[in-house]
Amino acid sequence: MKYCVIILDGMADYPLDELDGKTCVEAAMTPNLDYVSSHGQLGTAQTVPTGYSPGSDVAAMSIFGCDPARFYTGRAPIEAASLKIDLPDDTIAFRCNLVTIKDNILDDYSSGHITNEEAKTLITCIDKELGNESLIFYMGNSYRHILTCKNSDSPFTAACHAPHDIMGEKIEGKMPEGEGMELLAKLMNGSRQILGDHQINKHRVNEGKNPANMIWLWGQGKRPTTPSFHDKFGAKAAVISAVDLLKGLAFLMDMDVIDVPGITGNIDTDYDAKAKYGIEALETRDLIVIHIEAPDEMGHCGNIKEKVAAIENIDEKIIGPMLQHLAKSGRSRILLMPDHYTPIVKRTHTNDPVPFAMFGHGIERGRELAFSEANAIESKLKVEHGHELMSMFLQDLG
Fold it and tell me: Among the three residues 196, 221, 246, which one is the final residue of a domain in this structure?
C-alpha cells in the first residue's frame, strides 16, 4: 500500500465579492482535487485545538498525527531542528523574522521575501553586533531565521506576536510583554539601528523593494519530545517542503526529508519537481507528504489572482501526476487538505475546521461533491481532533 498526503498550505478561504461569491479554490480550475473529492470522502478536520494559535506549526503537527496538546512547545524549536541546531534543556529557541517597518508600522512580515544571499549578510551582521556566547543568531531561509538563548535566568514566557498577524499595526503595542520582555525588546530595537542604514537595505529601497530593517522575535520554546512516525504508525515516511517548519517536524518525528532543487516556499516554486521527487520517494517508502507554501503566502499578501494560480498549479502539476502514479502502483490512497485557513480578507490564519478529501483503496465513495469549503462543511464526516485523521487515513496499513 502506498500513501500520499498533499498539504496545500493556507488554501482554505472565505467567499469573495471579487470572485462573485466564490472562494479561491471554488474559482480555480481543479479537476484533480474535484476527482478525489467526488470519488472518495470529503470532510472537515479541526487541526488547531481550542486555545492554540492557528499556525502551521500546530496544524501540521496535527496532520502528521501528533497531538499538539501533548507535544507542542513552540514554533521555533521545530524550525531549529530543521537547521540541525542543538537545543539542550537550558536553551530556548526564537523564530527571528526579518521584517519591514515603515513609520513604526509593521508593513511586511517577509521583507519582500528577501533573498537568502541578502539575508545571510544581514543575519551575520546581527549576530556579530547583538550575539554573544548565550545569544546566537542562525541563518534560516529567506526571512525566516532562529535565535537561541542559552543559560538565561528568564524562562521567556513573554507573549510575542507573530508578525504575519499584525501587519499594518503600530509596533509599540505589539512588542513582547511578560517575562524576558526587556531583553527581547532590546534586541529588536537594537536591530533597527544596525539594519536601518545597511548597504543591502539601501540597495533594496533604491530598487523599490521592502528593506529588512528590523528583526522580530516570536514563537519561542524548548525542544519537544515527539513520537517517531514509524513507531506510531508502522510506516516509513518522507516529507517534501521548502520551509524549515515542515522539515523540522519531519526530523523530530524521524521522517525522511527529501531535498528538492528549485523549490522556494513561494509562488515561484518548482511544482513539477515536487511531484517528480515525490513519486521517486514512494519507491522506497510507504508514505510521502508534499507541502506547498504558495497559497498561504498569497493569502498573507491578499493576492487573489496569485492564490488562485497557486491552487491551479498544485492541482495540475502535483496532484495530477501523483494520482496517475498511484493508479499504476496498485493499492494506494491520497489525502488532500490545507493545514489552516488563510483568508484573503484577513491576511492571516484562522482556526476554522479545514476541508479534506481522501480517496483510494478501501475508501468508500461519498456524496460525489466537488472540493470546496462549503461542501466539506455540509459533509457528515467531521474529525474533531485533527491528529486522529492520519490514523483514519492509514487504518489498514500492513
Answer: 221
Same domain, 234 and 376: yes
Q: Are both 387 and 354 inside the same structural domain?
A: yes
Specify whether 108 is located in the same domain as 31: no
- Which residues touch 70 (CB under 8 Å, ≥6 apart)? none
Q: How many CB atoms are located within 10 Å of the residue 301 CB?
A: 21
Cell reading at 137: 543568531
Residue range of the domain that includes 376: 2-72+226-393
Q: Position of cell 519591514?
A: 100
pLDDT band at 40 (very low <50, low <70, confident <90, very high): very high
**What is the per-residue pLDDT across 109-163, written as a single tens digit (0 to 9) for each?**
999 999 999 999 999 999 999 999 999 999 999 999 999 999 766 778 899 999 9
Whether residue 210 is predicted with pLDDT greater than 60 in this model: the reply is: yes
Measured CA distances, 26 to 218, 248, 309, 351, 384 (Å): 34, 32, 12, 20, 24
* 366 and 240 share one domain: yes
The stretch 34-56 carries a mean pLDDT of 96
The pLDDT assigned to 398 comes to: 38
In this structure, are 111 and 214 located in the same domain? yes
Q: Locate 138 and state its grid cell.
A: 542562525
In eight-state DSSP terms, residue 8 is: E
The answer to whether 119 and 142 are in contact (CB under 8 A) is yes
* Residue position matching grid coordinates 513561494: 266
Kind plus residue range of the DSSP H or E element containing 184? helix 181-196
The answer to whether residues 54 and 116 belong to one domain is no
User: What is the rounded average pLDDT of the residues 22-30?
Assistant: 98
Q: Is 398 a domain residue?
A: no
Q: Distance between CA 101 and CA 349 in Å, rounded?
A: 21
In whole angstroms, what is the distance from residue 8 CA to residue 221 CA?
26
- Spatial separation of the C-alpha atoms in residues 398 and 387, rounded to whole Å: 20
Tell me the average pLDDT across 256-282. Answer: 97
What is the count of structural domains for the chain?
A: 2
